[in-house]
Design a protein that fits this description.
Number of helices: 3
CATH architecture: Alpha-Beta Complex
Strand content: 25-35%
CATH superfamily: tt1808, chain A
Oligomer: single chain
Shape: globular
Order of helices and strands: HEEHEEEEEEHEEEEE
Amino acid sequence: MALSKPVITDLYAELVALPANMVGEIISGTLYAHPRPARPHGRASSSLTAELFTPFDRGRGGPGGWIFIAEHELHLGAHIVVPDISGWTVARYPAHETTSFSVVPPDWLCEVTSPSTKRIDRFQKLPIYAEYGVKHCWYVDPLEKTLEVFILSDSVYTLGPAFADNAQVTAPPFEAHTFDLDVLWERGNPPEAER
């Protein structure tokens, strides 16, 4: 697993200067900026965080041993990415970092995709996560109502379990807890598109 040092460049200054309603990432030397997530995306992300936090971060009704941070900036070499949720085992959590970002790759992360970010999340960021040794990546699509689990082995991700609609989810690395996938979805009639 490669470790990285913070990168301060003119491009990073542009990222920092983005308006507060924008999320910026630098991937392979290109700055990508997109608006903050729409409601179905935010609902899926916050609901998944809530579902995992109690048993795995707090250790209530589960094994504990994890620390989760939402929308935390990661500096992975020259890449600056912002997964929707990042999770570290307690043993690897970068408690010594005092910056607003981490250079220690998480052990698990989740990307909640939207029409404007899906291709970047899947085809540009996933290889970066493999390079930096993120063992598990979950991809949630709130419009398609799916969850895909990618597992790293020999620097390559393979698709593990996948779930749709209201399936019961038991998935690595959180097999100690099962939840209904539909807790992530908007109730009522969500908008047809977001972002």
